Amino acid sequence: MRKKSAQFLTMLILVMGGVCFSGCDKDNEEDPLGASRPIYNMLSDLSKGDIGLYLTEWEWANTFGITMKLSFDRQECTYTYQENAASTKITTKYTYSFTYPTVILTPENAEESVITGTIVSGRITLADEATFVNAQKETVWKKLTRKK
User: Fold this and answer.
1) How far is CA 140 from the centre of its chain?
2) Residue 52 belongs to what domain range?
């Protein structure tokens, strides 16, 4: 009986030791969920020049519910501005031409001015960004960030 108890106790100690030491890996101790690793920009790189703005979406939003969106189609894009979820959306359509890093937006309404955008793309850990100015070089919209 003593021999079986000694074998059982030895096995129990070995199993418990294995369980305790298996969680002490140095790699897992520092960052078990990968939180400190950079979040890579998985969107296509516009700076390579082989991809246009087709089907891309750019957005700016703040904590007060104001949103600005710019959605590109094959030949035109739509700018949407909304103050909050309850307010009506203001939309403007533009035709555009794109040669990295510059996008030129021409409004359908001839009374509005042409808007020129500058895109920063190709950064691994940061999302693509675009800034827009009018003909007088005045900023017309907030800096928009690419969402898709």
Assistant:
1) 22
2) 46-146
State whether 121 and 50 are in the same domain.
yes
Q: How many domains does the chain have?
A: 2
Residue entry with tokens 């693509």: 128
Peptide bond into 32 cis (omega under 30): no
What is the distance between the alpha carbons of residues 21 and 18, in angstroms, rounded to a whole number?
5
Does the pTM surpass 0.90? The reply is no
Question: Cβ–Cβ contacts within 10 Å for residue 51, how many?
Answer: 16
Q: What is the rounded distance in angstroms from the CA atom of residue 114 to the CA atom of residue 138? A: 12
- Is residue 104 domain-shared with residue 33, that is, in the same domain? no
pLDDT one-digit tens code per residue, 87-132: 889 999 999 999 989 999 999 988 889 999 999 887 777 888 999 9
CA dihedral 12, 16, 18, 22 (to 10 degrees): 160
